[in-house]
Specification:
Helix content: 40-55%
Number of strands: 7
Number of domains: 2
Largest sheet: 5 strands, mixed
Strand order of the largest sheet: 2-4-5-7-6
CATH class of the largest domain: Alpha Beta
Strand content: 15-25%
CATH superfamily of the largest domain: Histidine kinase-like ATPase, C-terminal domain
CATH architecture of the largest domain: 2-Layer Sandwich
Length: 212
């Protein structure tokens, strides 16, 4: 127990120390962009900003994990449409070859924002992974339901049943361990979100997240 407590304290202190360099990099890159006109330099600054944004993402996730371990309340009021837009913008930088379309109605909830972000990222990441021949993913928010639709390899009924098995992967040649969707389901069950899949081989998959 003493070891775990010391580890938690170290994590909190490390998290606190990370905040300053992240803020410093963000502030200074924004200042540099105002004074530079050279396209090549602006692209390099853009890459620094993207790397810093990814670092900020890891920071938020570490902060989230510490709060979860400490049993702290992690729920807050936020706009789901704004969260989806932010995640699409972030993932577009990681997958510049993909075309993301969005149709989002305004919708606010009180929930675990960081946890939902991880769920959305995981589902979209899977959609990209299994869309080798298609470069389009549609994201829609309508009537308290998120739809994430890809046009990739799709799944048959047996595969749809098995996707929540912790280490199952529809394509064994894909990287990763197939643990993502089991985590997604746990989060949805805990937060009263109805999770469902509509899929057909060769036509793609639509994942639905319906908020009660």
């Amino acid at each position: 127990m003493e070891y775990v407590k010391n580890l938690q304290n170290l994590s909190k202190e490390t998290l606190h120390e990370l905040n300053l360099p992240i803020s410093t990099i963000t502030t200074n890159t924004q200042m540099l962009k105002r004074t530079i006109a050279d396209e090549k330099l602006l692209k390099r600054i853009g890459r620094i900003e993207s790397a810093c944004e990814m670092l900020q993402q890891r920071y938020d996730e570490l902060d989230y994990l510490i709060k979860m371990q400490s049993k702290q309340e992690v729920k807050e009021r936020f706009a789901v449409d704004k969260l989806l837009s932010d995640r699409i913008e972030f993932l577009q930088k990681i997958y510049p070859h993909m075309e993301f379309t969005k149709e989002l109605e305004s919708f606010e909830i009180v929930s675990d924002k960081t946890g939902l972000s991880k769920v959305i990222d995981n589902i979209i990441d899977n959609a990209v992974k299994y869309s080798a021949e298609s470069k389009k993913i549609d994201i829609k928010l309508d009537k308290r339901t998120i739809y994430i639709c890809d046009y990739g390899i799709g799944m048959d009924e047996v595969e749809v049943i098995r996707i929540f098995d912790t280490y199952y992967q529809a394509n064994e040649n894909m990287q990763g361990f197939g643990i993502g969707l089991s985590m997604v389901k746990r989060f949805c069950d805990t937060n009263e979100i109805e999770l469902s899949f509509d899929s057909k081989p060769g036509f793609g998959t639509t994942v639905k997240l319906k908020f009660k």
